[in-house]
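Q: What changes when NDP is included in the input?
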Amino acid sequence: MGRVAIVTGGTRGIGRAISETLKKAGYRVAANYCGNVEAAQRFTEETGIPNYRWDVSNYAECEAAIAKITAEIGPVEIVINNAGITRDAVLHRMTYQMWEDVIHTNLTSCFNMARLVVDSMRERGFGRIVNIGSINGQAGQYGQVNYAAAKSGIHGFTKALAQEGAAKGITVNAIAPGYVDTDMVRAVPPAVLEKIIARIPVGRLGRAEDIARTVMFLIADEADFITGSTISCNGGQHMY
Ligand code: NDP
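A: The predicted holo structure follows.
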């Protein structure tokens, strides 16, 4: 039987593509979501992948969900920390709530999920954690001090945890997507989006499947020598 993988925010956008790609490859997937029940139900009807509702920023909810998934599907060997939100504003208009929501949903969630699976991964001598960062965590972005800080934090978190997990068969990597055609990017005003696409050397937005294929590469058993890396998947928009 395939390894058990949790994909947070796994019912829509990039997460949905990750969930579907993993299932097709034989992994046993649990897809998380938070508020959009309709999308989650449609996702499960269309893919046959079970959905689990919890808020990844809430430690107790993560704990209960992981216990449920472990009981229903099996011990969790792979976690894709994909759930994320934006609450954009320039700093002089950003509220504390906008800061807190983004930091907790995008970054604290990685701590919550990793902390709650790490003991079992260490015992089993195997684990794969992939954290979805962002080009805007690498380069910064006007109007996104909260999001850029959270995503940049993910990249540091990844490198630190990779060092701790290495001797126990646990790899921890990050993917930094560029602009990918999902609901999150569809919320960007068309004129701004046009300017963004003009700066992408391959000449198009990313597709959710581009990120899903990168996840597949990183979670393979054979990828055990790749840890602490951040793979940019951005059409050449930002290289460093
Ligand atoms: P979407 O907005 O399309 O989907 C977000 C997913 O995250 C949804 O399934 C949503 O659940 C879930 N989610 C949001 N908040 C929570 C929460 N508190 N607890 C559990 N689940 C939650 O986003 P994308 O697919 O575009 O983005 C996925 C990831 O990729 C994010 O981390 C994002 O920051 C990152 N990224 C995206 C880029 C892009 O261009 N799209 C570029 C770079 C990075 P629900 O359906 O219930 O709302």
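Observations recorded in class: The mean pLDDT is 97.
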